[in-house]
Design goal:
The protein is of the alpha/beta class. The protein is built from six helices and seven strands. Helix content is 29%, strand content 29%.
Length: 192
């Protein structure tokens, strides 16, 4: 398991003066427009921004998140207290061993996580395992050229498609979105 520096995506999303504000808002809007069903899992949820945003969807009744950092999960827990009418489950876990039953989730998000793990195939297989048949799976990764010291690998569209197709996922939609002045995200909307 690799220990990651936790980024404050909450600050980046809610502070219009932050230099990455518009990129975070655009990326999360893309995700939230594609959330389907009653159960939502964020794989590598950090401080809970995507969970908080998914909770605004009246159809979502169950919000689950996993992350390796207990401090981030505590922040997420505090931020999700407002959702008293929803089931919220947060667990400290390595993303290559997701601690939920098979066929549990209607939507699974894995945003900015795959590039940090040593075995991305195992993580994708776990995401597929916990997803219900027909589930929406949303993936976001930095595109080649957007390397940081914490990235194990970067992706281009072909590499990401090979990874997801190899796990039996069907690509519904792909997008490329600016991540910063010199980087891009690759986004995929897939179905199990």
């Amino acid at each position: 398991m690799i220990k990651l520096k936790q980024f404050n995506t909450w600050e980046r999303y809610f502070d219009p003066t932050h230099p990455k504000y518009k990129y975070q808002v655009a990326r999360h809007a893309w995700f939230m427009d594609r959330v389907k069903g009653e159960s939502f899992l964020d794989v590598g949820c950090s401080g809970g921004l995507a969970l908080f945003l998914a909770g605004k969807n009246e159809n979502v009744k169950k919000l689950c998140g996993i992350d390796i950092d207990s401090i981030s999960l505590k922040m997420a827990e505090d931020r999700l207290l407002k959702y008293k009418n929803k089931e919220v489950i947060l667990k400290v876990s390595d993303v290559s061993n997701i601690p939920f039953d098979s066929n549990s989730f209607d939507t699974v998000l894995c945003g900015e996580t795959l590039e940090h793990v040593t075995d991305d195939c195992k993580v994708i297989k776990e995401i597929v395992r916990v997803s219900k048949p027909g589930a929406t799976i949303l993936i976001s990764v930095p595109k080649d050229g957007h390397l940081s010291r914490q990235h194990v690998r970067l992706y281009n569209r072909k590499k990401l498609n090979q990874l997801t197709n190899g796990a039996g996922l069907t690509i519904i939609e792909e997008s490329e979105m600016k991540a910063s002045k010199n980087g891009y995200y690759l986004l995929s909307n897939l179905v199990k």
